[in-house]
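Re: that chain you flagged

S.,

Sorry for the slow reply, it's been a week of failed gels. I finally had a moment to sit down with the sequence you sent. For the record, here it is as I used it:
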Amino acid sequence: MKALLYKISAVLVAYGPWGIFLLSVVDSVGIPLPAAMDVLLIGLAAESVKAPHHALFAALMAVIGSTGGNMALFSAARSGASWLKSEPPPGKRQRFREWFSRYGLLTVFVPALTPVPPLPLKLFVITAGALRTSRTRFLAAIVLARSIRFFGEVYLGLALGKDAQGFLTRHGWTLGGLAVGLSIAFYLIARWVESRRQPLP
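Prediction finished late last night. Pasting the structure tokens below so you have them in one place:
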């Protein structure tokens, strides 16, 4: 099975930006393909220094494809969880729904932004869909995170050339820490804004 997935990835990559588009769709829907989008984009950008528009188009296709795939997975989970339309009984499930409704998209934003493997984006996407998170808010989180990530990687590839992939490898955990720190800052800001909105007793 793994050999077949390698062959599929190689075929898609051979089609350039359009292949990256299809690869990002398939990967985001939930079928893990061996060719990592991050490595492909950085490598393509490093080879496109004289034609940066080619790499930027590939990044755009990756954003669109990944957004489409994640939206498909989100919509499937949302449709399959119709039993959650009714209000659940008081308890942990209700508290979790309330928490996720307010801050859960941060758990989508962080793994969508950072290439650190241990963060299971698909699990959070399915959770967001099952808990019937706002489509607009979910879409905004995915588009923002993927745009920062993919266009940032293309920028690294264009700026550093062949050393870009090594830079990402050496500083991957640092970048992941920055993404987590940014998300914590967003969380604290959201809590502060929410406290300001609450009426005074």
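What I noticed first: The CA atoms of residues 25 and 31 lie 9 Å apart.

Talk soon,
D.
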